[in-house]
Amino acid sequence: MGQQKQHSVSAEQRHLMISEAAFFRAERSGFRSDPLGDWLEAEAEIDAMLQNTPPAPHHNAKKSKSGHAAAGKAG
Hints:
Low-confidence stretches: 64-75
Order of helices and strands: HH
Mean pLDDT: 78
Number of helices: 2
Distance between the termini: 54 Å
């Protein structure tokens, strides 16, 4: 039987990891992105990494408050 690799981090460590990932996302966009969106995407990415599963595919479509991709291109 194989051993399952398990990552254990404290809530403080997880928060720091998400904070850093969100910062780098914002930096890549020249700090023109939505901070909440950066945080939520970073949170999903870090949680997936900690659970050893791939994050959901990221689409560059703008999302409305309802969570659906907006029609057309943002310009």
